[in-house]
Amino acid sequence: MNLIVAQTVIPDFGGGENSCVRQNKGFCWNWVQDNWSDVLWPAVKQHVALTAIAVVIGFVIAFALALLAHRRRRLEAPTTVITGVLYTIPSLALFQILVGFSFLGLNRLTVEIALVSYTLLILFRNTLAGLRSVPTEVREAAEGMGLTRRQVLMKVELPLALPAVFAGLRVATVTVISLATVAAFIDDEGLGSPIFRAIQSNVFKTELFAAGGLAVALALFADGALVLIQRLLTPWARRQRA
Amino acid sequence: MPVRARHLLLPVPIEHTAQAEGSSGIPEGRHTPAATVEFVHVQKRYHGQQDPAIRDLSFTVPAGEVCVLVGPSGCGKTTAMRLVNRMIELSDGDILLDGQTIKNRDTAQLRREIGYAIQQVGLFPHLSVADNIATVPKLLGWDKGRIRARVDELLELVGLDPDMRKRYPAQLSGGQRQRVGVARALAVDPPLMLMDEPFGAIDPITRSRLQDEFLRLQNEIRKTVLFVTHDIDEAIKMGDRIAVLRTGGELAQFATPADLLMHPADEFVEQFVGSDRALKRLALTRVRELELRPIGAADGLPRIADEVPLRDALAQLLQAGRQEGIVVDGAGNERGVISIDLISRSLELPA
Question: Is residue A156 within 8 Å of residue A148, measured between CB atoms?
Fold first, then answer.
């Protein structure tokens, strides 16, 4: 019974008679080929934009907070608590709550606010830990040689914090790529929208697999790219004594 | 003295070394500016602590000498040293560099004119050896050519291969790191060096070699050096003068090593110097400084190099089970006969 109903509601995904799509044989490669330029590739580009905006804004905010907390220790605890609470709110709930604010709506701004809030804790904590990871004797030598506080920050603490900062960026980026698929619930863009369509259609899964797979690939690619950038920026970390 | 003070206010260009050499009257080596350091009733109290870290410290280190601050832990020796470059601020009294107070100096500027080397070295892990050494020259805005030339010069001075310049600290051995640390501290040719247990964290063999090298280097450059250690043997070896501190930052004695060993001021110093101070004094004198006996029958006597300290000569005689030995100079010529008796009598004369 179910089967019959389902078959009758299959929308026309194209592909013509007797194709994989028409017969709905699980994953259809030719659907991917047919819809690459119209559906999937634009979704990938939107997804990259959603992620990049969230990570960049999140990083700017978290970095500023970390610099403040680095200078004034008592700012650390409250910042950790606030960003920690944001981080623990279930994503669907947060999207729902944000939509409730009248000045926001079902749009990209709402999505970005949610995504940014998830990056803050990781980026704040890692940046702060990086700044604090500078060995005491290195800081002391820097001060003893006459570097000003600002110079110690710029020439010593920030470069040495880079590995920790990048570790944070990697986790944040991968998290946001994953979360941004949920964001299609609010704003119909990114790799989440083909996934949602597939869930709603309840039968045809190619879209789901294709978009899901692309999200995974995107996460792996972004992670690899960040590793590469970090290696270029921190040549000293690779050259350990043999 | 006021003339010298000029050097403290300006980064001293290397080109001036020739001038400094001429005026100093010491012909050999790369003699460079050195500052007189005066502690004048220096006091340091930490907020909320009843006993001062330093109660009342006064002494003067003449330009070009190594003054070792030595004492048990908690005696305030590191605190005293750090007061000089204002890593710690004075509570009372004053410190004068070439007669000028440090109190109204800009701290960053003051520190750039004082070499600073610490036990853990504190090299910047993200910078190459060359960039580490170039830290202060860059802060002072030297041009690239001058920095490069100075780095090469310093690498040679501390006995490191020029190929090392591109390495990162993690790629160096402990001894190499120390050398880079000393080169970095010497980068802008500061008239004063502060060294806080610079050879403390190194194995004994490398340590002794670095000490020897530093003495050779110091013989060339004649900086004023404040050297902190808890090791009395190191103090005796390195110091032209030794300031023995006791808890509370009190000066127990300020003397030359020989004086300290012959006339310890009180029980504390005597105890700190150790019951083997006669032996320690033997370490201060070299065989060649002794008036040797002419060579008689020299059959089977141990041969002793004239450059070793009396202590080593005595050890060699005891080991060989002989009363006498033949002293040989660097070229292999026999210079005379040394005996246990001669060594023991040398202790009776003022060293």
Answer: no
